[in-house]
Design a protein that fits this description.
By secondary structure, the chain is α+β, with helices and mostly antiparallel strands. It is about 35% helix and about 20% strand. The longest helix is centred in the first third of the chain and has 40 residues, at about 1-40. The relative contact order is 0.10.
Length: about 625
């Protein structure tokens, strides 16, 4: 029995040993066959690949989406750009390559070495950018000598192109190289160092939509780093196209009228909140940011006292001056402090406490009611209304009309302005509100601060019967094949529900500003198409005290305001214009607003009157003189 079991075990072991031997033999046979195939049959091709070729991956940048105005006029697109790179592993001998390349670029060799040194951490096979957007002549020279420039490559990419230099610059914005902090943020997770992203304006606000999706390709390169063939390509996806609400023709004209001075102009559709014009002066050339600003160019921009990088339409804050009397009128009527029969006598000043508060018209306006007070901008009348309503009552209606808070427009760094209240002053300064401060607030001075966009929203809300829409700049976003991805709808943010009597009296007063011979902007009227508005002259500093002798030339000039909506009935446009140090709203700001209105309503130039002032004549040009100049029209302050 024991002998039998030993025999069985031996047979089983021998069978397992034979199985293992056969398996090992089969593996060796397969390896031998594979080696024969690789070394004999494919040996020549594989030797070539191993010695002189390698496979690499290359990125394909996605073209950014195009930006156009409401009528389809392209404002921003892309153009081809040729960027020069070097791969250190392939650029041997490096000294010879750099010397040859420096001669073609007409640049010092040391400049190229410095660029390479600052990017060595990228790795031997990583392309190092030597020069962006080379000229076609340089491109041709590099291509002719490419066999003498191992490791040097030219990549074709798209480069942002702003078609009109400085046009709508603060709306469109500009691009800049992505920062290390941005690379850590989720919205930029598909970006890499060296990418250009939106830094300001619409380019920043809609960066994700405009950027698109990067593609790539697998290429075979030889020992000199030159592409032999493309093995596989994944196409980049172009960014979405953005259609703005801006009207390019209106925007361009507004910028022409603002040229050479600091200021802004905003125009809005009162029935939707669409922004038709947002001009800020002076502007900047966004193409310079794409090319890369030199230190001198940057210092020139930031040191310019006219602040060209500031979007004055949404970031600059000013006292609203007499344009605020629209708010005071509505507050007085809604609170019952005044009505259609109310009147005050204006002798040219109002005694309050131990001080005389002056009216802009030294001789006074005499007995005035609400409509005439608004038409002629009588300060004394509004002092009285302010006293009756109080600072908190004024603030209630100012905020209802959109002042004192950001409008919510899709641009960053929007200022909120300031509408003072008694509680605000106590919290801010630790002292109670004084009655005399209310008088200043009632005529738009004092602590009041607003932006031009806020005042355009206010004018639009009054013109639309008290309905306030959120202003917006982007009409829609479309994919590369034209499909609508996003479409903005009008959004009502407040319905003030002002009484019809309040609106009717306010309309009459604003209509009189432009169309009544005694109105402060009578010379700005448009024949056959009446529009309504309000002038304002904002004091930059306090006026000299009575008896104080001050050189007028040493005082900064006052800011000029004009707000309006047109036509007076069923308006289709509301405008706010601010000219810094323009002195008078009627002569500096109103002509700009009138020209925007005229173009919007498609009226010929001979359908408008023309101001007598020579400065305005030079600014708007080509308009006819009024048939008979008014005898009582005046300018504020």
């Amino acid at each position: 029995m024991r002998t039998y079991l030993h025999s069985v075990d031996s047979d089983w072991f021998n069978q397992r040993l034979v199985g293992v031997f056969v398996t090992v033999l089969a593996i060796f046979i397969l390896l031998a066959v594979r080696l024969i195939y690789l070394q004999v049959i494919q040996g020549k091709e594989l030797r070539r690949l191993s010695e002189i070729n390698s496979i690499r991956l290359q990125d394909i940048d996605a073209p950014r989406g195009i930006i156009s105005d409401r009528n389809g006029h392209i404002l921003v697109d892309n153009r081809p750009a040729f960027n020069l790179y070097i791969i250190l592993k392939d650029a041997k001998p490096l000294d010879h390559t750099l010397t040859k390349l420096a001669g073609l670029l007409a640049e010092p060799v040391e400049a190229l070495r410095t660029t390479i040194q600052s990017s060595r951490k990228k790795g031997a096979y990583a392309p190092i950018l030597l020069k962006e957007d080379i000229s076609r002549d340089t491109l041709a020279a590099v291509e002719v000598h490419k066999f003498e420039l191992p490791g040097v490559q030219v990549h074709v990419t798209s480069r942002r192109h702003y078609l009109y230099e400085g046009h709508a610059a603060h709306v469109l914005g500009y691009l800049g190289e992505i920062s290390s902090d941005e690379l850590q943020c989720p919205p930029f997770e598909d970006c890499k160092g060296g990418d250009y992203v939106g830094k300001f304006g619409i380019e920043k606000a809609f960066e994700t939509a405009l950027r698109g999706k990067r593609g790539g390709q697998q290429v075979e390169v030889n020992a000199r780093g030159q592409v032999v063939r493309v093995l596989e390509t994944v196409d980049a996806q172009r960014g979405q196209d953005i259609v703005l609400t801006i009207d390019q023709s209106l925007q361009s004209r507004a910028e022409e009228l603002l040229a050479g001075q600091a200021g802004s102009a905003v125009a809005i559709d009162p029935q939707s909140g669409q922004v038709l014009v947002m001009a800020s002066s002076p502007a900047f050339n966004a193409n310079n940011f794409v090319k890369g600003l030199s230190r001198d160019q940057w210092n020139e921009l930031i040191s310019n006292p006219l602040r060209p990088l500031e979007n004055k339409a949404i970031q600059a804050e000013y006292p609203p001056a007499s344009t605020y009397k629209i708010v005071t009128t509505i507050a007085g009527l809604e609170e019952g402090a005044i009505d259609a029969q109310s009147s005050y006598f204006c002798p040219g000043y109002l005694s309050y406490g131990n001080r005389a508060y002056r009216c802009w018209k030294k001789g006074g306006h005499g007995e005035v009611h609400v409509v005439r007070a608004l038409t002629e901008s009588c300060d004394v009348f509004y002092y009285q209304v302010g006293i009756a309503v109080g600072v908190d009552g004024l603030a209630k209606y100012a905020k209802a009309l959109g002042l004192g808070a950001p409008t919510g427009i899709s641009l960053d760094r929007e200022s909120k302005g300031l509408i003072p209240t008694s509680e605000w002053k106590l919290r801010r300064f630790g002292v109670p509100w004084q009655g005399g401060e209310t008088l200043s607030v009632a005529i738009g001075q004092g602590f009041n601060l607003v932006t031009p966009l806020q005042m355009a929203v206010l004018a639009a809300a009054v013109g639309s019967g008290g309905v306030r829409y959120k202003p917006y700049l982007v009409q829609s976003a479309r994919s590369a094949d034209g499909q609508v991805v996003f479409e903005q709808k009008p959004e009502v943010v407040a319905n003030t529900h002002f009484r019809p009597e309040t609106l009717a009296l306010t309309y009459k007063g604003m209509w009189g500003v432009v169309n009544d011979p005694r109105g402060t902007a009578y010379l700005m009227r448009i024949k056959d198409v009446p529009f309504s508005g309000k002038t304002g002259t904002a004091q930059v500093v306090s006026r000299p005290k009575d008896g104080e002798v001050v050189d007028p030339q040493s005082l900064p000039k006052d800011h000029a305001w004009f707000v309006a909506f047109a036509p007076s009935v069923n308006p289709t446009i509301a405008v706010a214009v601010m000219i810094e140090h323009g002195e008078h709203g009627s002569s500096a700001a109103a002509p700009v607003a009138r020209e925007i209105i005229r173009l919007h309503l498609h009226l010929p130039e001979d359908n408008t009157t023309k101001i007598i002032d020579q400065k305005t004549r030079e600014r708007i040009g080509g308009l006819t003189e009024p048939a008979a100049p008014p005898t009582e029209a005046g300018e504020e302050e």
